[in-house]
Amino acid sequence: MNVRMLLVTNLMCFILIIPEINCFLYVEYHDQIDFTHVNITRGAIQDVAAIHIASYLEPGKYDVVRQNASEIIRLYFQKNPQAKDRYKIAVNEILQGLSMGERNVQQSPKYTMNNEQIEEGNRYLNEKRSLIVSLPIDDHQLLTAIRLQIGQFIFTLQDFYSNTNWIEIGGGVLNSLGWNDTLGFPVAQANQSTCKDCTEPSAK
Ligand SMILES: *[C@@H]1O[C@H](CO)[C@@H](O)[C@H](O)[C@H]1NC(C)=O
Ligand SMILES: *[C@@H]1O[C@H](CO)[C@@H](O)[C@H](O)[C@H]1NC(C)=O
Ligand SMILES: *[C@@H]1O[C@H](CO)[C@@H](O)[C@H](O)[C@H]1NC(C)=O
Ligand SMILES: *[C@@H]1O[C@H](CO)[C@@H](O)[C@H](O)[C@H]1NC(C)=O
């Protein structure tokens, strides 16, 4: 399973506060992914929505082994086009938050976990997560704002996996990311080299 995908899905479970779902074990429904922020996020939201539909809204109605996420979503919304429109708006607002996350980068490399700002980036994520979970989800006026925040959070979270060497060193899913102010392991200083020099003639 794609690690970034798994993480985003876990994240969505935390944020959407669906505690009964075992967010770490599920059938991998999603479409083929192309590794852009938007594609990964879209796929993760689709997974979470399908899990929610199949586990809560209409439990027992879907075959989660044979039916993929887009199929479950299609069948569920077939009978309620208005709900489908609202779902699309929600997804687009989260994706809009991703681009806002990208714009934040101009202010500081911590938003992309770059330039050894990994600890700062993690503290930012933890603050952002605390803010998000403190916002009242029963206030419909606030839902757009919450989704935009979630999108910004996800942008930086994904960049941890793409802009650090965490995956290359076999780190897997990092549960402390965006959850604790301390990551639980030492992070290289800006003046420490973290890559091997390319000495092989074939190395690029
Ligand atoms: C999902 O399932 C539907 C219906 O079986 C199928 O048409 C579609 O191609 C599947 N999508 C993927 C990405 O496998
Ligand atoms: C992600 O990208 C792939 C390849 O371009 C595409 O087939 C797929 O539908 C996209 N997934 C989502 C959820 O947008
Ligand atoms: C967060 O940190 C606390 C102690 O500071 C620790 O007990 C807990 O396991 C950590 N959680 C994660 C997900 O790393
Ligand atoms: C890196 O910088 C820190 C202080 O910023 C310094 O204490 C340390 O000696 C430096 N390490 C190297 C390898 O230059």
UniProtKB/TrEMBL annotation:
Residues 1-23 form the signal peptide. It comes from the Eukaryota. The keyword Signal applies. Keywords: Signal. It holds the Pfam family VWA7_N. Residues 71-202 form the VWA7 N-terminal domain. This is VWA7 N-terminal domain-containing protein. It comes from Mytilus galloprovincialis.
